[in-house]
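Contributing new complexes? Match this layout with phosphoenolpyruvate.
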Amino acid sequence: MTFAIHGLPVARGIAIGRAVLMGGRVDVAHYFIDPAQVDAEVTRLREGRNAVIDEIHRLQHTIVQMGKEAPHELSALLDVHLMLLQDEDLITGVKYWIRERLYNAEWALTTQLEQLSRQFDEMEDEYLRERKADLEQVAERILRYMKGVASPVAPTPRRKSQQDLLLDDSVDVPLVLVAHDLSPADMLQFKQSVFAGFVTDVGGRNSHTAIVARSMDIPAVVGARSASQLVRQDDWVIIDGDDGVLIVDPSPIILAEYGFKQRQAELERGRLARLRHTPAVTIDGHKVELLANIEMPEDAPTALEAGAVGVGLFRSEFLFMNRRGRLPDEDEQYEAYRRAVEGMQGLPVTIRTIDVGADKPLDDVQREEAHLNPALGLRAIRWSLADPAMFLTQLRAVLRAAAYGKVNLLIPMLAHASEIRQTLSLLDFARAELDNRGVAYGPMQVGAMIEIPAAALSLRTFLRYFDFLSIGTNDLIQYTLAIDRADESVAHLYDPLHPAVLQLVAQTIAECNAQGKGVSVCGEMAGDISFTRLLLGLGLRTFSMHPAQILAVKQEVLRADTRRLEGWAKEVLASEEPGKLLGQ
Ligand code: PEP
Ligand code: MG
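Output block (do not edit by hand):
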């Protein structure tokens, strides 16, 4: 029966496909295999299972040798694990996902685990219900074994066009990811993945997870509360990323309606694509720079493709994620920054120094410690200054990459003059280190993010030290309004048009313009067409956003006349409820 679940829209568009439920295990590989590779993949799974069975037999043998000393519970536990491993239900189920859906073995195993876990949850008998934990441990052991053995199978990335959707059982049907929660690091794993859209139970519109989804340009809904409980594996679902709705088991009429919407969106994309090479100039002749926000050097071609005239925000922290404590060294970082610089073919690239902590943990270990690292904690530049060796490594790597093109350095989350001075002296130190080593590096402009209200209220200090400023509205809103950007329960209070937020944004733009210093907005406001006219009216001429948003914003710029917008923007600023003047 059709039903709808409401959440928060985070990335536009419509996705129609089958649900893939993701339990706790998002860190395993997810890719399709070729039909010819099915047997090899099943063998890999079987070998994984057999290796774990052997391991348990060995343990049992040790226990027998220990005699009475051996803990009785351990022996019973191993018996249960053996029984589960030998249970054909598990293997038959996993084989189904490999053979019929062409999932790689790890993905197939976690999918079957999810399926069985739900059955366990529904059991009346408490003893049986508790076997779920054993099952998870058994699956974990197989996964660990498989991780140590390289897959002979090459991934087959397959992102089926929505247009090609057929409602049959073909393996080519788009897949929609449904999960309780996904961290930005998890999302990164899906960046090259097979999913056509995603839904999570938790998360705010401007959480970093939502931001990565937007950068992937796939429809997404977050804060859908109990979606991961209500949707079943393989259910047909529609994600409406415009309205923030998930429709489960849609009727043919609803499917037809959304199919139509999808085609309309495709047509609109086609129309916008014609603007790619059109310079972004307002009706009254103001040139506007539309830059891209990227997460990885590999995003550079997408930015160019979208007509970006540079990168306004390279969130370098994504290079540091999913590395289990081993951070990239200077050479590895330098290579990555250089790839981004070369990838942009002579256009400027603004590299932001690492911004981790709060809702951007580096990996599971940091995620578990997240309560120690809230948004008000050791985040971004604070984290960097707390570990100068790590920070100097990054600074040297960026300086070296600057020898290959126009690079700007951007520092996140500054508030205090002492932090500014410390940062700049570390930058001098990094240059001196490179001089001593005789290593070449290039010149760079250095800028600061304005994302803490204290920074927006100390502009004179900031402008004394920096070449340019970039307004991080995502955090500026969070910190001005005391609203956790990742918490869906307060998402309705997260308001970019709150008069206090607008004052801070407006003052920053005005002060930079008055002093002839560069200023941009690189938070999500820059890519939201409902704010383009207002920001232009406030004097903003540089916007940085996800590549997928550039053409729509360009269209707004081409239709704008700043002579008219300036007076209107003043009215908006003076209003108690600016949203009303923007029709919101
Ligand atoms: C911001 O805060 O607006 C910003 C661009 O940085 P991030 O979203 O990475 O915190
Ligand atoms: Mg920020």
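Reviewers usually confirm one structural detail per submission. For this one: Residues 412, 451, 472, 474-475 surround magnesium ion (ligand 2) (CB under 6 Å).
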